[in-house]
Amino acid sequence: MIAAGTFAIGLLALIGGAELVVRGSGSLAVGNIAGTNTLNLLLILGLVALIRPLKLRSQTLLLDLPVIVGAAALLLILASDGRLSRLDGGILVLAGAVYTALIVRAARREAAVVRSEFAREYGTTRRALASTGQLVRDSVGLIAGIAVIVVGADWLVDGAVDLAQRLGMSESLIGLTIVAIGTSAPELVTAMVATLRNERDIAVGNLLGSSVYNIVFILGTTSLIPAGGIAVDAPLIMIDIPVMLVATIACVPVFLTGRRIRRLEGAAFIAAYLGYLAYLLIART
């Protein structure tokens, strides 16, 4: 369930990122990834924890957490020369494939346990309870959702590029703010709904998983499109990607202390993001 939600949300960023690169707006694409991940890990995760303290499962601590830190550090290293080449993109995609394999392996183990418990409780499996009508509705919903994502990505890119040109703002700044907030909206809704329904594993897993995929698959794939790779602006290398990395590292002691995110820690995350946003609006405009 977490993987499916991560894929659907990540599709918007992938389509939008690819379109930006085709239009020659690589800095906007990189800024979007850095800004989206920082927003996910500080603002959205902080808001979710503020509503209800989050307990963390073992997979989050043993897999998702170290991978997001490693992915952020890898992006900083690859972008340090001012460009994400096709080779860099290949490295990121390969890392994403390894991460996906690990997730699938963990999901299969978890699914086997869930099916066994469900069968003992109800004498049947979940799959046997699924009706044909439900499968048709799910399929139609998936197709309609993908169509909306494609159209939404096109509108988002058009609006962001046009705004950057009209206001004289750098493309990276637009990606860090307006586009990042726009592409994070589905994750915000998903995290809030999951938290209110007490599905906190989905809330945390989706935020971390989508942040990893933003780097390894979304940015990795878009780096493979142009022959010369993607140019990365100096402020992104010196400030914004390091801020994203610091945000991921800050999660480590918070997550490991009591295996939960408390309300006070959530408030601290929100304050940190608002401070970063204030810096962007004051110093970079």
Classify the secondary structure makeup into a structural class: mainly alpha
The total of helices stands at 10
Order of helices and strands: HHEHEHHHHHEHEH
For the sheet with most strands, the description reads: 2 strands, antiparallel
CATH architecture: Up-down Bundle
Number of domains: 1
- Residue windows where pLDDT falls under 50 for at least 5 positions: 1-8
Tell how many strands the DSSP assignment holds: 4
Shape: globular
Oligomer: single chain
What is the distance, rounded to the nearest whole angstrom, between the alpha carbons of the first and last residues? 40 Å
> If you compute it from the alpha carbons, what radius of gyration comes out, rounded to the nearest whole angstrom?
19 Å
**Mean residue pLDDT:** 78
The first-level CATH class name: Mainly Alpha
Strand order of the largest sheet: 1-4
Strand content bin: under 5%
The fourth-level CATH homologous superfamily is NCX, central ion-binding region
Residues in helices, as a percent range: over 70%
Features:
285 residues; mainly alpha; A middle domain of Talin 1; two-stranded antiparallel ribbon; 10 helices; 4 strands; globular
